[in-house]
Amino acid sequence: MAMTTVFGVHAQAPQENTALNLQSVIKVRGGNPVYVARGLSSDSTPEALATDFTLYEDQAGQKPLCTVSRRAPDTRLTVTAPDGAVLALLHPPAGNRYTLELPDGTSLSGRAGTAASWAVYVVLSPLTLLYNAASLIGGYGIDWHLPSRTNWRTGTFAPAPLKFNGITDKYRLRPTQLDPRVAYAQAVLHFWST
């Protein structure tokens, strides 16, 4: 059985004691968090998708994992390791489709929302409505997610090295099939664009 890494991307509260512009934190189940610092994007990218960002092992920004930036005139985002090696190219979201290209020529594509997930959503929506009503009464607030499952794969029936489940807001990664740094970068772009 293949090992799976489960993680979630979360908005980060502004930190006053750091020089980094921390925007998000990736919480890895059973592992250390990964911190996302947004750079200074000089292009006309909307703020929600400002591109230049770096993933760090530490909150102080001393141990970078990779950098994601746009290289003009290309619209794709380049994921670069600290040693300068290109790990992947991420395509900006096109509607509900997300695509990444690996250096060996492999292309992984994911489409948000599937017919099956919408069918399950319709069947379970009355229960979700009751759950949210009880949450409101209990003072917890609304926790409503649309079916936005996304599986990044090479073909229609190929195994997916990276999966996102919109109901749980969790990503599942098979680290033997995809570099975790690439998966984290794709997840940040996915999180910021939804």
Textual characterization of the structure:
- The chain is an alpha+beta fold.
- Helix content is 19%, strand content 31%.
- The protein has a twelve-stranded antiparallel beta sheet with strand order 9-8-7-6-5-4-3-2-1-12-11-10, with helices on one face.
- It is globular, with a radius of gyration of 17 Å.
- The two termini are 32 Å apart.
- 25% of the residues are buried.
- Mean pLDDT is 82; it is low at 40-50.
Helix and strand sequence: EEEEEEEEEHEEEH
Side by side, the strands of the main sheet go 9-8-7-6-5-4-3-2-1-12-11-10
Strand content: 25-35%
Q: What structural category characterises the helix and strand content? A: alpha+beta
Keywords:
194 residues, alpha+beta
Sequence-ordered SSE layout with sheet pairings:
Layout (H helix, E strand, L loop, with lengths): L4 E7 L10 E7 L5 E5 L14 E4 L7 E7 L6 E4 L5 E5 L6 E5 L5 E5 L3 H23 L12 E3 L9 E4 L4 E4 L6 H14 L1
Antiparallel strand pairs: 1-2, 1-12, 2-3, 3-4, 4-5, 5-6, 6-7, 7-8, 8-9, 10-11, 11-12
Summarize the structure.
The chain is an alpha+beta fold and 194 residues long.
